[in-house]
Amino acid sequence: MARQRQTQLDPAIYRVRLDSLRIFEISEAELEALERGSPESIFLNMALAVLSMAISFSVSLATTKIESDRTFTVFVVITVFGYGAGVILGVLWLLSRRSLRSVSSQIRSRIPSEGIQETDEPA
Protein backbone atom coordinates (compact mmCIF):
# COMPACT_ATOMS: atom_id res chain seq x y z
CA MET A 1 0.00 0.00 0.00
CA ALA A 2 1.14 3.52 -0.62
CA ARG A 3 2.21 5.66 2.31
CA GLN A 4 -0.41 8.07 3.46
CA ARG A 5 0.34 11.71 2.92
CA GLN A 6 1.74 13.54 5.91
CA THR A 7 -0.55 16.18 7.28
CA GLN A 8 0.55 19.46 8.79
CA LEU A 9 -0.14 18.06 12.28
CA ASP A 10 2.49 15.30 12.07
CA PRO A 11 5.55 16.21 14.17
CA ALA A 12 9.04 16.29 12.76
CA ILE A 13 11.14 13.57 14.35
CA TYR A 14 14.92 13.90 14.57
CA ARG A 15 17.09 11.06 15.82
CA VAL A 16 20.53 11.78 17.24
CA ARG A 17 22.90 8.90 17.95
CA LEU A 18 24.45 8.51 21.37
CA ASP A 19 28.14 7.80 21.83
CA SER A 20 27.41 5.34 24.61
CA LEU A 21 24.46 4.17 26.64
CA ARG A 22 24.47 2.56 30.07
CA ILE A 23 21.57 0.35 31.02
CA PHE A 24 21.07 -0.49 34.68
CA GLU A 25 19.30 -3.65 35.79
CA ILE A 26 17.53 -3.16 39.10
CA SER A 27 15.71 -5.45 41.49
CA GLU A 28 12.07 -5.17 42.50
CA ALA A 29 13.01 -3.76 45.91
CA GLU A 30 15.20 -1.08 44.35
CA LEU A 31 12.43 -0.16 41.93
CA GLU A 32 9.94 0.17 44.80
CA ALA A 33 12.38 2.38 46.72
CA LEU A 34 12.76 4.63 43.69
CA GLU A 35 8.98 4.72 43.11
CA ARG A 36 8.35 5.78 46.70
CA GLY A 37 10.55 8.71 46.02
CA SER A 38 12.20 10.77 48.64
CA PRO A 39 10.15 12.34 51.39
CA GLU A 40 13.19 14.34 52.36
CA SER A 41 11.92 17.67 51.07
CA ILE A 42 8.69 17.36 53.08
CA PHE A 43 10.60 16.45 56.24
CA LEU A 44 13.04 19.32 55.75
CA ASN A 45 10.31 21.88 55.03
CA MET A 46 8.24 20.79 58.03
CA ALA A 47 11.31 20.79 60.30
CA LEU A 48 12.21 24.33 59.27
CA ALA A 49 8.62 25.55 59.70
CA VAL A 50 8.21 23.99 63.15
CA LEU A 51 11.62 25.17 64.33
CA SER A 52 10.93 28.72 63.21
CA MET A 53 7.62 28.62 65.08
CA ALA A 54 9.41 27.37 68.21
CA ILE A 55 12.04 30.08 67.93
CA SER A 56 9.40 32.80 67.58
CA PHE A 57 7.53 31.51 70.62
CA SER A 58 10.84 31.36 72.56
CA VAL A 59 11.53 34.99 71.70
CA SER A 60 7.99 35.90 72.80
CA LEU A 61 8.49 34.11 76.11
CA ALA A 62 11.83 35.80 76.68
CA THR A 63 10.77 39.34 75.80
CA THR A 64 7.18 39.57 77.02
CA LYS A 65 5.73 39.30 80.48
CA ILE A 66 2.66 37.05 80.25
CA GLU A 67 0.19 37.63 83.09
CA SER A 68 -2.08 34.62 82.59
CA ASP A 69 -0.76 31.26 83.75
CA ARG A 70 -2.84 29.47 81.13
CA THR A 71 -1.39 31.55 78.28
CA PHE A 72 2.13 31.07 79.62
CA THR A 73 1.58 27.29 79.77
CA VAL A 74 0.30 27.23 76.18
CA PHE A 75 3.33 29.18 74.98
CA VAL A 76 5.72 26.84 76.81
CA VAL A 77 3.96 23.72 75.44
CA ILE A 78 4.06 25.06 71.87
CA THR A 79 7.73 25.96 72.25
CA VAL A 80 8.73 22.55 73.64
CA PHE A 81 6.60 20.73 71.05
CA GLY A 82 8.13 22.83 68.27
CA TYR A 83 11.71 22.09 69.25
CA GLY A 84 10.96 18.38 69.71
CA ALA A 85 9.10 18.01 66.42
CA GLY A 86 11.76 20.02 64.59
CA VAL A 87 14.55 17.77 65.84
CA ILE A 88 12.60 14.59 65.03
CA LEU A 89 11.73 15.80 61.52
CA GLY A 90 15.35 16.85 60.98
CA VAL A 91 16.58 13.37 61.93
CA LEU A 92 13.97 11.78 59.64
CA TRP A 93 15.19 14.04 56.84
CA LEU A 94 18.79 12.91 57.36
CA LEU A 95 17.84 9.22 57.46
CA SER A 96 15.60 9.32 54.38
CA ARG A 97 18.23 11.23 52.44
CA ARG A 98 20.82 8.57 53.15
CA SER A 99 18.51 5.66 52.27
CA LEU A 100 17.70 6.90 48.76
CA ARG A 101 21.34 7.71 48.09
CA SER A 102 22.35 4.21 49.18
CA VAL A 103 19.92 2.66 46.67
CA SER A 104 21.36 4.79 43.87
CA SER A 105 24.96 4.03 44.82
CA GLN A 106 24.16 0.31 45.07
CA ILE A 107 22.78 0.35 41.51
CA ARG A 108 25.75 2.34 40.20
CA SER A 109 28.27 0.07 41.94
CA ARG A 110 27.35 -2.76 39.58
CA ILE A 111 28.96 -0.93 36.63
CA PRO A 112 32.11 -2.80 35.58
CA SER A 113 35.40 -0.93 35.30
CA GLU A 114 36.13 0.96 32.09
CA GLY A 115 37.55 -1.35 29.44
CA ILE A 116 36.10 -4.53 30.92
CA GLN A 117 33.16 -5.91 28.98
CA GLU A 118 30.84 -8.51 30.46
CA THR A 119 29.33 -10.99 28.05
CA ASP A 120 26.75 -13.69 28.51
CA GLU A 121 28.49 -16.00 26.03
CA PRO A 122 30.84 -18.68 27.38
CA ALA A 123 34.47 -18.29 26.38
What does the model show?
With 123 residues, the chain is mainly α. It has a domain at 38-108. It is built from 3 helices and no strands. α2 packs antiparallel against α3 (69-108). The longest helix is centred in the last third of the chain and has 40 residues, at 69-108.
Poorly predicted residue ranges: none
How many helices in DSSP terms? 3
User: What is the 3D shape?
Assistant: elongated
Number of strands: 0
Rg calc:
28 Å
- Which oligomerization state do the chains in this entry correspond to? single chain
Distance between the termini: 47 Å
| Main sheet specs | none
The residue fraction in helices comes out at 55-70%
**Averaged pLDDT, please?**
82
Estimate the strand proportion.
under 5%
SS-based class: mainly alpha
What's the SSE pattern?
HHH
Could you give a short description of this structure?
The protein has 123 residues and is an all-alpha fold.
Describe how the helices and strands are arranged:
Layout: H1 28-36, H2 40-63, H3 69-108
Helix pairs in contact: 2-3
What distinguishing features does this structure have?
3 helices, mainly alpha, single chain, 59% helix, elongated, 123 residues
